[in-house]
From TrEMBL:
Coiled-coil segments: none
Entries under PANTHER family matching the protein: FORMATE DEHYDROGENASE H, RESPIRATORY NITRATE REDUCTASE
Keyword vocabulary terms for this entry: 4Fe-4S, Iron, Iron-sulfur, Metal-binding, Oxidoreductase
GO terms of molecular function: 4 iron, 4 sulfur cluster binding; formate dehydrogenase (NAD+) activity; metal ion binding; molybdopterin cofactor binding; NADH dehydrogenase activity
Signal peptide positions (record): none
Protein name according to UniProt: Formate dehydrogenase major subunit
Pfam families, per the entry: Molybdop_Fe4S4, Molybdopterin, Molydop_binding
Source organism (scientific name): Halobaculum gomorrense
Protein family per UniProt: Belongs to the prokaryotic molybdopterin-containing oxidoreductase family.
A single GO BP: respiratory electron transport chain
């Protein structure tokens, strides 16, 4: 291993978007705590503590692989590069630039995502996307359109200090952002804040606020897919109370008047809305929702947290818009302790979007179909950017073998991460050329024509942007395998071989220097200025300290106003029927991460949850004759998986809950790939399903999970 000394390096946890600082000791690649890390001050969750376990894992890819006669064989880097360039040029000649798609990665760094999106655009296509499409595309759309920026409005620190009410809807920070939950949100509750949680599933977040001696936690356990009616009950309650008692401060009239547009549309939308009917539809007592509305509206500072329970619906944009409506009419934006705050899943999903790894925006969320924005980037890049938005990643998968014939994937695993995985797998087999750049053999890489072995997060440097817009530096502890290459170096070489110029960079800092020229929110940052604490964007000029909260002086929408827009309930695309009488909803576990490529190889994490399971309500279990621990088959219109049963009141009767992490029984074999019309995010959170009991015990071993190449 190439290291200069054994001083632990300071870097960032590779898992969730909280952005905790950790140390890695070169040589043995051991995890060490970073006591004064800016976000977490030395605290760490089980995933962060186990993060280094996979760095030296025996399954690491160490040499380029090329498929020949259906089998992989080792190849030299030169041969692999030549093969890739030849195939990409052939596809360009045969089908034009939109014959290729590019999947960037929320698990890789800003500089790497920046380079891959630049490479796609130099190739002539905007068909570049990252997994934000699957988690928060709708949130980003709604926030960008109605407030100005597709990101958390506030920071974890100001929320902990100033928020009186935490409204957490469709998010499970206790499980998915453990340090944000324990160190910031729970701490605030211990100091007097109130939590209102809206979620169909009782989970670790619910349990984390069950604090002895406090009554400051409400859980509104709604039916899946009823977030709009629930929020409409809240908003209508606030409007009615304001009518009755205009001086009590239920809404913020001055804020609405001076800083928003669309209030009349909201009132009109709710004019014939019947609260009692909606509460029944939600499965939550009306008086509980009214009580929650009062707590939110009457607090000095109320903050909304939103997660994938809101975003992953065909009405995902409208779900988030209704949260924005609530915040705008009560004036809960533009100051500490307020806002609408999406908790981002992966350690650099925010950054991958910021640097333009999406089909409709360039770095800094500048629209590709905005001539002026495009020209300003072209001035730096020196080539023309295609003016039309490209296909999103799910659309690219749908088009594989049809209009898309080649795919370049950096660090993603769509066969497991995208909905209707069986269909994705079939389509990917139809590609003429698939290149995968990764650290392990994945369920997707099995179908590749060429695989490039990359280095892990611990071995290389760069920057990542966490959930509250803090850009932080990662530092490399040196390579484990000299034959592997950093993602950035691979992209520089592929770009240079394809295009001759524009991709010759001297490491990540050199790339960052170009990035800040084309990304206005990063323009004031340098590696030196980021130092060890990082900077929250926007940081527009050198010397700016960045903003921990947004919109103090105005919104950054086209009009300058916050946009209110009334929305109505929309049922999920699939609702229960005779054949599929249950609603399947999905979520993640604290101990696992996405498709499990890393976490399933970590002994510590795998021990906690070695295989998938399904939560079933006791009444449903009785009806089906199922006991806790039985193995059942879950079926949807798209596929089936076998899982063990947990009988629990954590889930509502009529709903079942499972996870996407395990290859042997991934929830995404069942989920529906229908998309939100605007943001193109799939509806992972609601699909019609059925349970089949009396599984042959001889087949039960199939629920055991192993990584793709074991
Ligand atoms: S909370 Fe997130 S960033 Fe922090 S240690 Fe855990 S997984 Fe890593």
């Amino acid at each position: 291993m190439s290291t200069e000394n054994n001083e632990p390096i300071k870097t960032i946890c590779p898992y969730c978007g909280v952005g905790c600082g950790i140390k890695v000791r070169p040589g043995d690649m051991r995890f060490m705590p970073w006591a004064d890390a800016p976000v977490n001050e030395g605290s760490i969750c089980i995933k962060g503590g186990a993060a280094t376990e996979v760095v030296e894992h025996e399954d690491r890819l160490t040499d380029p692989l090329i498929k020949e006669d259906g089998e992989f064989r080792e190849a030299s880097w030169d041969e692999a590069y030549s093969y890739i360039v030849e195939e990409m040029e052939r596809i360009h000649d045969d089908y034009g630039p939109d014959g290729m798609g590019f999947f960037s990665s929320s698990k890789t760094m800003n500089e790497e995502n920046y380079l891959l999106q630049k490479l796609a655009r130099r190739y002539g296509t905007n068909q570049i996307d990252n997994c934000t499409r699957m988690c928060h595309a709708s949130t980003v759309w709604a926030l960008r359109t109605s407030l100005g920026a597709g990101a958390m409005t506030n920071s974890m620190a100001d929320l902990e200090e100033k928020a009186d009410v935490f409204w957490i809807q469709g998010a499970n920070p206790g499980e998915q952002h453990p340090i944000a939950n324990s160190q910031y949100f729970r701490q605030a509750v211990l100091e007097g804040a109130t939590v209102i949680q809206v979620d169909p599933h009782a989970n670790k977040t619910t349990r984390s606020f069950d604090i002895e001696g406090t009554e400051r936690h409400m859980h509104l356990q709604n039916e899946p897919g009823t977030d709009i009616p629930l929020l409409n009950v809240v908003i209508k309650t606030i409007l009615e109370k304001h009518e009755e008692n205009p001086d009590e401060g239920w809404i913020d009239e001055a804020f609405i008047e001076e800083r928003t547009q669309g209030f009349d549309h909201l009132k009109e939308t709710l004019s014939d809305f019947v609260k009692a009917e909606a509460a029944e539809q939600c499965g939550v007592p009306l008086e509980d929702i009214e009580r929650a509305a009062e707590k939110y509206a009457m607090a000095n500072n109320s903050a909304i947290f939103t997660g994938m329970g809101m975003s992953q619906h065909t009405c995902g944009v409208d779900n988030v818009q209704n949260e924005i409506n609530l915040a705008l009419i009560t004036g809960n934006l533009g100051r500490p302790g307020t806002g609408v705050n999406p908790l981002r899943g992966q350690n650099n999903v925010q950054g991958a979007c910021d640097v333009g790894a999406m089909p409709n925006v360039l770095p800094g969320y500048q629209l590709v179909d905005d001539d002026e924005a495009r020209e300003s980037v072209e001035d730096v890049w020196g080539f023309e950017i295609p003016p039309e938005p490209g296909l999103t990643n799910v659309e690219i998968s749908h088009a594989a073998g049809d209009t898309v014939h080649g795919l370049y994937i950096m660090g993603e695993n769509p066969v497991m991460s995208e909905p209707d995985g069986n269909r994705v797998e079939e389509r990917i087999k139809d590609l003429e050329f698939l290149c995968v750049q990764d650290i392990f053999m994945t369920e997707t890489a099995k179908y590749a024509d060429v695989i490039l072995p990359a280095t892990t997060w611990a071995e290389r440097g760069g920057t990542v942007t966490n959930t509250d817009r803090r850009v932080q530096r990662m530092r490399g502890a040196g390579k484990v395998h000299e034959t592997t290459k950093h993602d950035l170096d691979i992209l520089c070489e592929v770009g240079t071989r394809l295009f001759g110029e524009g991709f010759d960079f001297d490491g990540p800092e050199d790339v960052f220097e170009e990035l800040r020229q084309v990304c206005p929110d990063y323009h004031g940052m340098t590696y030196d200025a980021l130092g060890e604490t990082g900077i929250h964007w926007p940081c527009k000029e050198p010397g700016d300290e960045g903003d921990s909260f947004l919109y103090e002086d105005g919104f950054t929408t086209d009009s300058g106003y916050g946009q209110i827009e009334g929305v109505r309930h929309q049922s999920p695309a699939e609702v229960p029927d005779e054949e599929y009488p249950l609603i399947l909803t999905t979520g993640r576990l604290e101990e696992h991460y996405n498709t499990g490529t890393m976490s399933r190889r970590s002994p510590t994490l795998k021990r906690q949850h070695p295989e998938n399971f399904v939560d079933i309500h006791p009444n449903d279990a009785d009806r089906y004759g199922i006991e806790d621990g039985d193995t059942v088959k879950l079926r949807s219109r798209r596929g089936e998986i076998e899982v063990k049963v947990q009988v629990t009141e954590a889930i509502k009767e009529g709903s079942i809950w499972t996870t996407p992490h395990f290859a042997a029984a991934s929830a995404n074999r069942l989920t529906n790939d229908v998309l939100d019309e605007r943001a193109k995010i799939p509806e992972y959170k609601a699909a019609a399903a059925e349970i089949e009991v009396d599984i042959d015990p001889a087949d039960e071993a199939s629920t055991d999970d192993t990584p793709a190449d074991d």
